[in-house]
TrEMBL record:
It comes from Oxalobacter formigenes OXCC13. InterPro entries: GlpE_sulfurtransferase (IPR050229), Rhodanese-like_dom (IPR001763), Rhodanese-like_dom_sf (IPR036873), Thiosulphate_STrfase_CS (IPR001307). Residues 59-122 form the Rhodanese domain. The lineage of its organism: Bacteria, Pseudomonadati, Pseudomonadota, Betaproteobacteria, Burkholderiales. PROSITE patterns: RHODANESE_1 (PS00380), RHODANESE_3 (PS50206). GO terms for molecular function: thiosulfate-cyanide sulfurtransferase activity. This is Rhodanese-like protein.
Length: 146
């Protein structure tokens, strides 16, 4: 082979770099669009930290909070607007769970985690999360997550 065929064409090198850069930019753009940083976007279903759960409640007015504690626990304090579907009766009352976006809460996260799996197995496409944390209810009706 001659030395001229061994050389790489500078224009071709420039196009290879340009297409590589464009591919990388598109790939990173798709990755970034799948995160929760986009306003009004939902995170992937599953567990939410206390701060993520508070953010979802603040930003998503169509989110339903479902409290899976006992009725007695619910009556002692709950998130305003939450509905009560005790874990003990959940398998028989799946129709009480709305089909839209749902955040499950309980006292420690254990029952909400269990409820998540029950609902997710029955409705794999459901937008569904559970709080991995502990709600703390105040006498004035306010609450925080820890």
């Amino acid at each position: 082979m001659s030395k001229t065929t061994m050389k790489t064409n500078p224009v071709r090198q420039w196009f290879q770099i340009l297409f590589g850069f464009l591919f990388l930019t598109l790939a990173l753009g798709v990755q970034a669009s799948n995160t929760y940083s986009t306003p009004n976007a939902y995170p992937h279903t599953g567990t939410l930290s206390p701060s993520e759960a508070m953010k979802m409640i603040r930003e998503h007015k169509n989110l339903t909070v479902v409290d899976v504690r006992t009725r007695e626990e619910f009556e002692k304090g709950h998130i305003p607007g939450a509905i009560s579907v005790p874990i003990q009766s959940l398998p028989q009352n799946m129709n009480a769970i709305p089909t839209g976006p749902v955040l499950l809460v309980c006292r420690t996260g254990r029952r909400a985690h269990y409820a998540y799996h029950l609902i997710h197995d029955a409705r794999p496409a459901q937008q569904l999360w559970y709080l991995e944390g502990r709600p703390v209810y105040s006498p004035d009706g306010s609450y925080t997550f820890q």
